[in-house]
Amino acid sequence: TPPPATASKDATAAKTAAPPKPAGPGPSKTVVRGGIGVFYNRIYEDLILQAHRFNGLNQQQFVVTDPSVLDLFPAIAAIGLLETFKQPQTRRLLGSELDPGLSLRSSVSLERQLSKTLRVSINYSHSQTLRALRTVNINAPLAGTFNPALPTSGVRPLGQGAGNILEYQSTGKYKSDSLSVGVSGKIFKVDFWTNYSLNKNRSADSGTSGSSFDPYDFSQEWGRASYDIRHRFFGGGSYQTRSGFSVNTFIVASSGAPFNITTGHDTNGDTFFTERPAFATDLNKPGVIVTPLGAFDPNPVAGQRIIPRNFGQGSGFLSVNVGLAKVVKFGKAIPAKTPPAAANGNVVTAAASQKPPPKPQIQRPYSLSFSIYASNALNHTNRGNLFGNMASPYFLKSNGSSNTFFFGPDGGGSGGNRQITLRVRLGF
């Protein structure tokens, strides 16, 4: 006796509802990415404009101190009367070998899916820039010929009357390495992400730090870059409560940025006040300053060891930011359209026919959003970088908050005191 027709239909529906088996082993849990590129940094037109403006001819500067000439105002004094008050010009030139900067950048990353809700990633990046822009005084007094007590002293290569000549050169360089580890996913219904990076950034002196004795000696200027922050951490998380409240947090932490320690005096005549002290060998010598970083001699002599560039270490940074939000919808209900039942051609599968129809979603025309956000919720004091000028009364002190940005409802900001923001938004 043949089976009933209904049994045959059920068997057909069951075969149709069976999901097909995957053809392969499925997506890989490990992904490796990498890339390398060469980039060029153009020479911007502002350098050309500066060289044209400050060529020693197009613009002159006069400082008038004679009352008889000043009383002529608002009438314009004759050029002959102003020649006595003419100031030396600082000219700017484009170097004959000025070329666009060349950057080589590369990175490689490894991502691994640890579980259904956890993922880890490791990334290493390297960047090296050659032919970086520098500004060098090519008419500074020769080594050993300048006396700081006599500002007009010194033997200049292009003549004393030529004054200071600042030349744009493409002889600088930068080098950066970064290793970062990130973990993201979901634990106990909390979505989170974290990232830690270890960085090392080195650079030349940008052309403004000739040695204390020779303005043309840049051999000791390779060192830490001003943005060399070794440790950085970012993290955040969000959680949705059953009552509809949304809680989120964002954390920023980093070690301090370096700062340069200088004597505050131009002892080589290059007009750049960036000479660094030496490590003191005689604590009784006049002018020696003892600091937590060591004893520094602002008046070094030949043979003394000059401290490295960006030898100082600034304060770290920490900002914990927390937000809480709630959305209330109201107004006459607008039922959404129910999606059609799943079908395969003209035959409805057995699995689809056995599921209860989905509940229609109720939409409301209006909504009120209430939120509170606390930036730097712990009220942690984030000091700005310290003063490195030994001649300043603020030497190794900070007179402001850090300018490291933390993120809140208003975007970036400084690392100042705790700030709490309340918001109400109406949607319609």
Features:
three-stranded antiparallel sheet; single chain; 428 residues; twelve-stranded mixed sheet; mainly beta
Q: How would you characterize the overall build of this protein?
A:
The structure is a single chain. The protein is mostly beta strands. Helices cover 8% and strands 37% of the residues. It contains 5 helices and 19 strands. The protein has helices at residues 5-17, 45-53, 67-70, 79-82, 350-354, and strands at 30-41, 91-94, 101-113, 118-137, 165-187, 190-203, 223-224, 231-240, 245-254, 258-259, 278-279, 289-291, 294-297, 312-313, 317-330, 334-335, 362-363, 366-375, 419-427. Strands 1, 2, 3, 4, 5, 6, 7, 8, 9, 15, 18 and 19 form a 12-stranded mixed beta sheet that branches. Strands 11-13-12 form a 3-stranded antiparallel beta sheet, with no helix packed on it. It has a two-stranded antiparallel ribbon with strand order 10-14. Strand 5 (165-187) and strand 6 (190-203) form a beta hairpin. The chain is elongated, with a radius of gyration of 34 Å. The chain starts with a helix and ends with a strand.
